[in-house]
Amino acid sequence: MKFSAFDFYLLSPAISLMVLALVVMAVDMFVKRRSVVAAISLVGLIVPAGFAISQAMTLTGTHKAFWDMLIIDQYSIFFTILFLVIAAVMILASYNYVERYVKGQGEFYVLMLFSVVGMMLMASTSELITVYISLELTSFPLYVMAGLIRENDKSAEAAVKYVLLGAMSSAILLYGFALLYGLTGTTDLAGIAKSFGQIGQGNLAVLVADILIIAGFGFKISAVPFHMWAPDIYEGSPTPATAFFSVGSKAAGFAAMIRVFMLGNLGAVNLGDLVVVLSIVAVLTMTVGNVVAAVQSNAKRMMAYSGIAQAGYILVGFIASLASGQPQGNSAVLFYLLVYAVTNLGAFAGIIGLANLTGGDRIEDFRGLFYRAPLLSIGTALCLLSLGGIPPMAGFISKLYLFSAAWNMGQYWLVVVALLNSVISLVYYGRIVKAMFFDKPAKQGRLSTSFSLGTSLVLMSAALVVMTLVAQVFLSATSLPAGLLMAGH
């Protein structure tokens, strides 16, 4: 089979981003000014972003290349653009922190860019082996990023834990893929979906394969009981790396998981049992995440459990689409992931700013921050309130849309549990807001935020306001990718 120029055009965002990572690596070896490395990393994202936007405007339907392993549609393009936005914001927000705490500043950006390449491929593959390779390309840079504060024992511990647990989860996922291959004779997701027509209902081996795949992806999205890595690794890693884990890794995990289950039609044989398993995981994830987050004193650990709870909410929408075969649940998931990325990055920008200014990341370190850094406090509070689902913030709209879609598809009890958990989440988000605005500061004097960090927080706050005011536009934008995905299903 010969490759055409169009095949490489389909892969152009990932290729150009890979080239950018290599250029940044080379520049870092010869240029001592770290600001140059950061600037090249940020400006260079324009090229893959340009290719992705061009694809979004010119491509319709589904396009496959490279022996049908690469699949480009509006679904994959949506996630490609999302990952590039995450990378851009993280480069802006992390510059001063990385310069201060991380010796290998260039390494940090190179690793992040390589990981984003893997994330883009995770959303753009329709074949099990390629999904696995993409996941590993995503994961290995993250393991190294966790340990980049070399003088810090917690950072080293986080890296080791991440490697060991990541290897275990990868093995579990690969075993699930191997079982699917043994049962169907193919690793192509469309071929797997066709093969299920010849397998009788209630096949136990298919259910076991499905559960193993849920466990493998459950690690990436930090779903209970596969969440044990998140709190320690979030706390020990450099704060910008933690922010990247919480948003990029989670979005990539959901992108691949939804594609595999929908395009591969993994619920064809054991839909009832599969929905029960996923529902139990969703309820445990929401409940454990929120309850444990409410008693944390460290802001990064609190955000780790918050991210776990958010994964539970997202699973509600995924379950609704899986059970009903309708795209509304997945459309709500895409919109929720978009809002979550913006709000979580904004919240972490505030935490990074606090670490830069005070050297601490405990909740008590936020006391009186409004009086010392008002703009930083207001931006952080907006993002936290949105994460908690306070109306009329975009986080409230995304939850309303997600829960309404699930309710309309008959997932009543899951929606009730999610609503109760949303109330619990107000406790710990409110603690930080209270500390910033109502507690007396431990020290006096204004604190100044760096230009790059301030810019990232302003951009996220502005994006949050825009999504709140024109939420329907973004909702409509996620309907097409979800509809095409279900059409493939």
UniProtKB/TrEMBL annotation:
Catalytic activity, EC: 7.1.1.-
Keyword Transport in annotation: yes
Keyword Transport assigned: yes
Species assigned in the record: Thermosporothrix hazakensis
Gene behind the chain: nuoN
Pfam family, one: Proton_antipo_M
Predominant location: membrane
Family matches, as PANTHER family: NADH DEHYDROGENASE
Record-annotated membrane-spanning stretches: 6-27, 36-57, 77-96, 108-125, 131-150, 162-184, 204-229, 241-262, 274-295, 302-323, 335-357, 369-390, 410-430, 451-475
Catalytic activity: a quinone + NADH + 5 H(+)(in) = a quinol + NAD(+) + 4 H(+)(out)
Name of protein: NADH-quinone oxidoreductase subunit N
Single GO biological process annotation from the record: ATP synthesis coupled electron transport
Compartment(s) where it occurs, according to its Swiss-Prot or TrEMBL record: Cell membrane; Endomembrane system; Membrane
Keywords, comma-separated and alphabetical: Cell membrane, Membrane, NAD, Quinone, Translocase, Transmembrane, Transmembrane helix, Transport, Ubiquinone
Record's bilayer topology term: Multi-pass membrane protein
